[in-house]
Each structure stands twice: as structure tokens, then as C-alpha cells.
Amino acid sequence: MITLKGNNIYLRALEPEDLAFIYTIENDESIWNVSNTQTPYSKFLIKQYLENAHQDIYEAKQLRLAICLNNSDEAIGLIDLFDFDPTNNRAGIGIIIHQDNKRENGIGSEALELLIRYCFTHLQLHQLYANIGTENEISIALFTKFDFQLIGIKKQWNKVDNEFKDEALYQLINIK
After folding, report:
1. Taking a C-beta distance cutoff of 8 angstroms, is the pair 62, 81 a contact?
2. 9-39 burial, b if ≥16 CB within 10 A, otherwise e?
3. CA–CA separation, 58 vs 91, rounded Å?
4. Residues with Cβ < 8 Å from 163, sequence gap 6 or more?
């Protein structure tokens, strides 16, 4: 896979050394409502996942990339393509910057811009979509910055802390 490099960050394939980082993210209950996670993941399962991370996106139907600062190989976040559908040229996209002090300083914007460009240029996708909780103002601002359009609201879609929350569907169509 080509390295996706920006001014401040780059996106890279997952490595076995990312086990502890992914384990921490997948087991962080404070973000489970964003990732629709219901149960903890074992290191064993994540290790198996990493052993299969070499699969081509056409085979796995997903792609997870580590977000790293240009001066480091340490992952600070993850950006995902999921539900990759080459027949209809579309995929879902999600992003998480794990450390609070790394959020809202342009890292997410740069990562999203790099992945959008990769999707439309190299994967020849026609559209991307994102599912975002309607209360997640930071993510809504990030995706709408890149012209993702609100398509609809899924009412009471996710149960969070014993309360049902709405989820918005945003879509970006490649018109080039």
C-alpha cells in the first residue's frame, strides 16, 4: 500500500506493534458508543485481527489505517473504511483520535482529507458515508467541512447509557 502522507501526519498500514494501541482503543468504554462496541476485546482476538490485516481491501471489505505524526511511527488514532462495496463503488468511513490532547488541532481533518483523496483517486469510489451520533458535534463539523451532506436521521438508533440516541447518515459523492 502506498503511504498516505500529509503536512503533519501520515496514514500507514497496521503493524503487529500496534497491538497495545488497538487493545486500548477497542477496550475504552468511553468511545464504545461511537464505535458501536458492546463488549471488550481480548489481546488474542486483536492479535489474530492484526495477523490478517495484510488482506487486500477487496478481500477483507475493510481497511484500517493508523494515524501517525510525521515525526513518529507511534499511532495516535485510527481511520477506517468499512462495508467496502466495489460493485457500487462505496464505503463507510470512521475516524478516532484517541488522546484528547491530540483532538481538534487539525489531525483528524488531515487524516480524513488524505483518505478521501485515496478513496476517490486510487479506489475509484463514487461515494463515502459516515454514521454519526447527532450529539457528536465535533465529528459532524469534521465531516461537513469536507462536504459530507446530511442524508437522514435514524431515530433512536443506538442505545447509549440506557437511552436511545439518534444517528445521522452523512454522504459524500465524488462528482469529478
Report:
1. yes
2. bbbbebeeebeebbbebbbeeeeebbeeeee
3. 11
4. none
Answer with the residue of higher pLDDT: 165 or 48.
165
Of the ranges 17-21, 71-75, 162-166, 169-173, the best mean pLDDT one: 169-173
Please name the helix (run of DSSP H) or strand (run of DSSP E) that holds residue 43, with its range, or none.
helix 43-51
Per-residue burial over 133-159, b if 16 or more Cβ lie within 10 Å, else e, is beebeebbebbeeeebeeeeeeeebee
Report yes or no: 62 and 84 within 8 Å, Cβ to Cβ: yes
Place of cell 475509484: 124
The owner of cell 502522507 is: 5
Question: 90 and 126 in contact (C-beta within 8 Å)?
Answer: yes
pTM flag (> 0.85): yes
Q: What is the pLDDT of residue 24?
A: 87
Is a pLDDT exceeding 60 seen at residue 11? yes
Name the fold adopted by 4-125.
Answer: Aminopeptidase (3.40.630)
Query: One-letter amino acid identity for 43?
Result: K
